[in-house]
UniProtKB/TrEMBL annotation:
Residues 4-138 form the VOC domain. It comes from the Bacteria. GO terms for biological process: L-methylmalonyl-CoA metabolic process. The keyword Isomerase applies. One of its GO terms (molecular function) is metal ion binding. Belongs to the methylmalonyl-CoA epimerase family. It is an enzyme of class 5 (isomerase). This is Methylmalonyl-CoA epimerase. Its EC number is 5.1.99.1. PROSITE patterns: VOC. Keywords: Isomerase, Metal-binding.
Amino acid sequence: MLTRIDHIGIACFDLDKTVEFYRATYGFEVSHTEVNEEQGVREAMLRINGTSDGGASYLQLLQPTREDSPVGKWLAKNGEGVHHIAFGTADVDADAAAVRDKGVRVLYDEPRTGSMGSRITFLHPKDCHGVLTELVTSAPSAHKEH
Ligand code: CMX
Ligand code: CO
């Protein structure tokens, strides 16, 4: 069952400048950064709500590490902006299977590794009224204070 907004993914050309915009404008701080080579992104997670029980919501700022990555291609075509939304679930495998059974294309056969050791998959935007949609199960460690 999808129970929350885990994050909103925002594509940007310059991660450091975009992080600084969110800090200076709203006071949001970076709670995590990483490079995910499989996804072709350098990313910063800004935690928006205060909970740390796996129920938190984030902005995920994304700068491509290569032009032929999903975010690189999208930026070249659209410029900066909202790239995807991500729903949180305790069981990404079950929810991906349930969505697939409804005829929506799930992009991965098995969930892959996302931010902070989470397990993620994506639904094709053309089957979701134009919205690239990610399903996320947080890593168990994300449920602890850190
Ligand atoms: N939102 C909405 N529509 C999108 C989109 C997006 N983010 N990305 C692509 N599309 C649309 C395109 O506009 C295009 O539509 P038209 O045919 O009408 O022009 C169509 O989908 C095909 O787009 P494309 O540019 O040819 O791109 P691809 O088909 O090669 O890739 C997709 C599209 C969704 C399969 C690819 O972006 C993908 O695999 N995404 C999942 C992985 C990902 O996004 N990783 C980065 C984030 C990592 C993270 O969140 O941790
Ligand atoms: Co994401």
